[in-house]
Specification:
By secondary structure, the chain is of the alpha/beta class. Helices cover 35% and strands 13% of the residues. α5 runs parallel beside α6 and α6 packs parallel to α7. The chain is globular.
């Protein structure tokens, strides 16, 4: 397959995943989605209002770009996770529906537009995430900080969570920049077990992600750290518990754990649908080993009810 590498061209599905180092192998018969995974179809006026606001200010959300199953519920409540630095990622993760390619230059007006939207929506808690930007010298850390600064100017009472990429190769610089104006919660997802990284998160490194969270916590002991993983990518129950223990060993305070859902027939297949009873068992284990908050369930995502999660940890 010939892939167009021109700036601004977004590749998804087959064109995105055609050149990863470990090819995706599909199941002969895809697993049938169980009855406990139900998604509401978005219909409310508030849902339409949020979508229109995002288009008006030329903003992106991970809710839309990553095909989040909770988009209807969150938009209807007037909440969204802003995805900054464009909608084209420099990585080709096989679980993720965000497009891949050569991103356009950063929009210098984006921090102000994000802050304006936060103010219009009257958000008391906001989550800001981004695509991976391996093309930037600081991985985009300074752009995160600009967004934090602008939001605090216009909405000083709003608490801010940032869900950051791994800043691989740029971590020292990124942590130095984030220290200038840190968020209320720092989130970075491990996503899956170390064994599966090469096929699920090509270009990323399990221990590097853990080190990012620990080093930030060492620098800012009073700021909550958070990470998330998915069930159903081929991991075992014991491996999930090992990941959770690794998180606690690196002083991570908060956990999200949800069911992986395959975005297209070209993405990594769902290897199992975890039963609700198993989610409850893992949740109990998380609290047993010391997590301050654990959001665990089939439709849980990194930013799902993030405000409610954080308010039980930060005061």
């Amino acid at each position: 397959m010939i892939v167009d590498n021109k700036e601004g061209v977004k590749h998804r599905d087959e064109s995105k995943l055609s050149r990863i180092p470990i090819k995706v192998v599909q199941l002969d018969e895809p697993l049938k989605k169980p009855e406990w995974i139900k998604v509401k179809i978005p219909t409310s006026d508030k849902f339409k209002e949020v979508k229109n606001l995002l288009r008006e200010h030329n903003l992106h959300t991970v809710c839309e770009e990553a095909s989040c199953p909770n988009i209807g519920e969150c938009f209807s409540k007037g909440t969204a996770t802003f995805m900054i630095m464009g909608d084209i990622c420099t990585r080709r993760c096989t679980f993720c529906d965000v497009g891949h390619g050569r991103p356009k230059p950063l929009d210098p007006n984006e921090p102000k537009e994000v802050a304006r939207s936060v103010a219009i929506l009257k958000l008391k808690y906001v989550v800001i995430t981004s695509v991976d930007r391996d093309d930037l010298r600081d991985g985009g850390a300074s752009h995160f900080v600009e967004c934090i600064k602008e939001i605090r100017k216009t909405s000083p009472d709003t608490q801010i969570e940032i869900l950051v990429p791994d800043f691989r190769g740029r971590l020292d610089k990124a942590l130095e920049i984030l220290a200038e104006n840190p968020p209320d919660v720092l989130n970075h997802n491990l996503e899956t077990t170390k064994r599966l990284y090469k096929q699920i998160r090509p270009g990323s490194d399990y221990q590097h992600s853990l080190n990012l969270l620990k080093r930030f916590k060492d620098m800012h002991p009073n700021i909550a750290t958070k990470s998330g993983i998915m069930a159903g990518l081929g991991e075992t129950d014991d491996e999930i518990k090992e990941i959770l223990q690794d998180m606690r060993n690196h002083n991570i305070d908060m956990l999200t754990l949800g069911q992986y859902l395959q975005p297209s027939k070209y993405h990594a297949p769902v290897m199992r649908f975890m039963h609700p009873d198993k989610f409850k068992e893992i949740e109990a284990f998380a609290y047993q080993i010391g997590f301050k908050h654990a959001a665990v369930g089939a439709l849980v995502r990194s930013s799902y009810h993030a405000d409610e999660q954080a308010h039980q940890v930060i005061r």
